[in-house]
Write a structure and sequence with these properties.
The chain is an alpha/beta fold. Helix content is 52%, strand content 11%. The strands form three sheets. It has a six-stranded mixed β-sheet with strand order 5-4-6-7-8-10, sandwiched between helices.
């Protein structure tokens, strides 16, 4: 009752507010209808409804699911599952993106329809496929429910099942036990682009025919996925060493020395376990750290380079452009919290 009263209040506000333009969250059809009935430009910022209003700036749900899959593939997982709780179009797009990306990589994905069935579904999957399970959940609230269910069932996270949520709601993710990793959908960029679109509409520009889709920013890694799904203990230890030294300009030889193996032997084991060399793994972590700093801070390129293991700002720019297809400055403009 309280929620329905709040929704009705929001509809009433949309109907009566005096404004030259409106940004609104179209979570109910009547909200969209009311906003579109006004004789002022209006931009929706929520992709929850089956049919997204044409004048919208919303998250790219399919890209979020694909990013979740890529996170797990990079960690070496071979056993995958998703929990499909809400059965709405926005959640279906996230699940579809996750499953499609895994299929492209040659993997199947089990789909659990109810959190209550999760224990049995995980047990069935682990009987068929060796190794820990990579589980993607379509929202952070559902992810918190999943973690609670796994705890009560005696299933260890992330050793038995890694859990990745969606939206990076810090109040939820950081209070979970263990803290929940999550796909950051880049809400700040969505708000910025919605305001920019509304400004153009108020200047007379026609409405876009299709919704503007905002790509996710990154996976925010917390304890629930802080693992490497490989049986080779030396490889796992080496990856942990690389992760801990991602802010330093380490070499492949440093990593090999940390696990008392030759560079050649460790490279062979990395390729067998993860499909990439030690050198490639080092640069992956340097790049991930640089991306996080460009996303979340206003540090200079010199400072970003120094804190992400690059020897100079020019080295960061060269390698970043080679890997990402754009300069660090262009990446920050596209993904940063301070447009």
């Amino acid at each position: 009752d309280m929620l329905s009263r709040e929704r009705q209040r929001q509809v009433d506000d949309l109907r009566t507010v005096q404004a030259d333009g409106i940004i609104y969250s179209g979570v109910l059809p009547e909200m969209v209808e009311t906003a579109q009935s006004r004789d002022v430009p209006a931009v929706n910022v929520v992709g929850r409804l089956s049919e997204i209003p044409a004048c919208s700036v919303v998250g790219d749900d399919r890209a979020c699911g694909r990013l979740a899959a890529e996170h797990y593939l990079d960690l070496g997982f071979r056993s995958f599952m998703t929990v499909h709780v809400y059965h709405e179009r926005f959640s279906q797009r996230r699940v579809d993106g996750y499953v499609d990306r895994l299929r492209e990589a040659g993997h199947d994905c089990a789909i659990c329809q109810r959190v209550e069935d999760l224990q049995q579904d995980v047990a069935d999957l682990k009987r068929r496929l060796a190794g820990p399970v990579a589980l993607f959940v379509e929202s952070d609230p559902a992810g918190a429910r999943v973690l609670d269910h796994l705890y009560r069932a005696g299933i260890h996270v992330p050793d038995d099942v890694a859990v990745l949520g969606m939206a990076n709601i810090r109040q939820i993710c950081e209070l979970c036990s263990p803290p929940l990793s999550s796909v950051d959908g880049n809400l700040e960029r969505r708000g910025y682009e919605a305001a920019a679109l509304l400004d153009r509409l108020m200047d007379g520009e026609p409405e876009p025919i299709e919704p503007v889709l905002i790509k996710p920013r990154s996976v925010v890694v917390r304890r629930s996925t802080d693992t490497v799904a490989v049986r080779d203990r030396e490889v796992a230890r080496a990856v942990d060493f690389i992760r801990q030294h991602a802010d330093q300009p380490i070499q492949a030889e440093d990593v090999a020395d940390s696990v008392l193996l030759s560079r050649r032997s460790l490279d062979q084991r990395f390729i067998a376990a993860l499909g990439r060399t030690v050198h490639e793994e080092i640069w992956n972590h340097h790049m991930q750290r640089a991306q996080a700093l460009l996303n979340d801070t206003d540090l200079s390129l010199y400072e970003v380079a120094a804190r992400s293991g690059f020897r100079s700002a020019s080295a960061l720019s060269t390698i970043f452009k080679r890997h990402m297809g754009m300069s660090p400055k262009a990446y920050r403009r596209m993904h940063g919290t301070q447009p």
